[in-house]
Amino acid sequence: MQEYYIKNLLRIKDEHLKVRKIETLDNVMEVHIDFTQGYHTCPKCAFKTCRVHDYRIKRIKHGVINGYKVYLNYKRRRYVCKRCGTRFPEPNGFVTRFSKISNVTKHHILKEAQSVQPFKNIAERLNISLSTAIRHIDRHVSPSRLELSETIAIDEFKKTNLGYGKYAFIICDPIEKKVIDVMKNRRTDWLVNYFGQIPLEERKRVKNVIMDLWAPYRSIVKNHFPNARIIADVFHFSRYIYWAFNDVRIRVMNTFKRDSVPYHMLKKHWKVFLKSPDQLKDDYRYIRALNENVNDFMIHDYAANLHPDLEEAFRLKDFFQVGIKETSFEEAETFIHEFIAMLRGAHTKEFKEIKKTFINWKHEIINSFDLHPKTQKKMTNGTIEGINNYIKVIKRISYGFRNFSRFRSRILFLYNKSYSMLG
Question: What is the pTM of this model?
Answer without folding.
Answer: 0.86
